[in-house]
Amino acid sequence: MGAQILAAKNEVAFENARRVNEALTARMEKRALQWMAERAPMWVSSDQLTLLGLTAQIGAGICFALSRYDRRFLLAVIVCLALNWLGDSLDGTLARVRRQERPRYGFYVDHIVDVLGSVALMCGLGWSGLLHQATAMAMLIAFLVLSSESYLATYTLKCFELSQGIFGPTEIRILLAMGCLAALRSPYATVFGHRMLLFDLGGAIATAGMAGMAAAVTVRHTAQLYRHEPIGRSR
Question: How far is CA 85 from CA 10, 50, 108, in A?
Answer without folding.
Answer: 32, 10, 18
